[in-house]
From TrEMBL:
InterPro entries: DUF2914. It comes from Candidatus Nomurabacteria bacterium RIFCSPLOWO2_02_FULL_40_67. The chain crosses the membrane at residues 16-34, 40-59, 79-100, 106-125, 132-155, 161-182, 194-212. Keywords: Membrane, Transmembrane, Transmembrane helix. Residues 285-351 form the DUF2914 domain. This is DUF2914 domain-containing protein.
Length: 365
């Protein structure tokens, strides 16, 4: 009893510090270990989290517990709630890492910030974990976001219909879970049924809104490398073909400029390079959309749309490029996107006319 009181007092005193530590440690672990959305380890770890969540939602509500039991280490309810919160933190941490790597932050920032907010809020919402409707709504969101990148990996396809099928799979899974849960806690489930249906419907509508407004990153694709160069030449070694690129040497401060200067001589070419990771057997076409900022109209105008093939499976991403010559001065951007219009990445630069070619450096891609 003395030990339990000591643990309770320690936990009450340092609860937020403990939560913050595990928040940081879990995110760091996922950052270092989660590499590919099609890797067995990544998918098994997320499936493990989802299984734990389903089991402990059920255990948490199998019997009533005294008020404040979620803060008492001497009760099973305390451990159920803490394990549940830890599992939700783990799965949202994994999503944050995988989704953040899959798009330009300046394009998908509303979705990414939403994910960050959910991830952080998870650490401070412990008292809500005793509420069935709250648990099931977060569980559905976890399942839905997992299906969004797992279904394309399994089907070797991406697109609107694949996304809609992911939503259907998620609804079927949560419906099956709710049916199983109803058999264990009929009375409590019946009391929360309307709110559960309302929350699931709201989440489903929100995720679809984010997708059709191109705010969800195009998982399972990701931009591994990209850049604007003065030249790109193919060479080869014993193992694979490489690309030698030439670029302007810049001061470190210039890397923080959103539209860095690109000195272009008359007739010179500008090369847009991109390395797109796609899972094995998921071969697609991407687009390089060259856009110029029209100072008169005050909007971006598309100058050229170039289709490029991407073959899935390469760890460093499938490398390809497009080129343009005689670009007008001013701000330019190259949107690297799917044929469905989802932005994978964006290259920005500012054309500055020059009479003499600038001093260039080279590197291998």
């Amino acid at each position: 009893m003395f030990l339990l009181n000591h643990i309770r007092n320690f936990y009450d005193r340092f609860e937020h510090h403990i939560s913050s530590f595990f928040l940081f440690a879990g995110f760091l672990f996922d950052t270092l270990t989660l590499k590919r959305v099609d890797a067995l380890f990544e998918n098994l770890s997320i499936l493990g989290y989802l299984l734990i969540i389903g089991v402990f939602i059920t255990l948490t509500h199998l019997k009533e517990t005294e008020a404040g039991g979620e803060r008492n280490p001497g009760t099973a309810h305390f451990w159920y709630v803490n394990i549940l919160q830890f599992a939700f933190g783990g799965v949202f941490s994994a999503y944050l890492v995988l989704y953040f790597r899959s798009a330009d932050f300046f394009v998908a920032w509303p979705f990414i910030l939403l994910l960050v907010a959910i991830f952080i809020a998870n650490e401070f919402l412990k008292k809500h974990y005793v509420r069935l409707s709250f648990q099931i709504s977060l569980f559905f969101l976890s399942i839905y976001w997992f299906a969004i990148f797992l279904v394309p990996v399994v089907m070797h396809r991406i697109g609107t219909w694949v996304f809609l099928f992911s939503g259907l799979v998620s609804l079927l899974v949560i419906a099956l879970f709710n049916k199983i849960l109803f058999n264990f806690i009929k009375d409590k489930f019946a009391q929360s049924k309307k709110l559960i249906l309302l929350l699931i419907s709201g989440i489903f509508i929100l995720v679809n809104f984010l997708y059709f407004t191109n705010l969800i990153p195009p998982i399972p694709l990701s931009l591994k490398d990209a850049g604007i160069y003065h030249s790109i030449e193919k060479n080869s070694n014993a193992n694979e073909r490489n690309y030698e690129v030439s670029y302007e040497d810049r001061d470190w401060k210039e890397y923080f400029i959103l539209y860095p200067d690109f000195q272009a001589t008359p007739g010179s070419a500008v090369y847009a390079f991109s390395a797109i990771f796609s899972p094995k057997n998921l071969n697609i076409n991407i687009l390089h959309e060259w856009q110029h900022w029209d100072l008169v109209e005050g909007e971006w105008t598309t100058e050229r749309l170039i289709k490029l093939p991407v073959i899935g499976g390469r760890d460093g991403g499938f490398r390809t490029f497009s080129a343009r010559t005689n670009l007008a001065s001013g701000k330019w951007r190259v949107n690297v996107k799917t044929e469905q219009g989802q932005i994978i990445g964006r290259l920005r630069f500012n054309i500055v006319p020059a009479e003499v070619e600038p001093e260039l450096k080279t590197k291998i891609k």
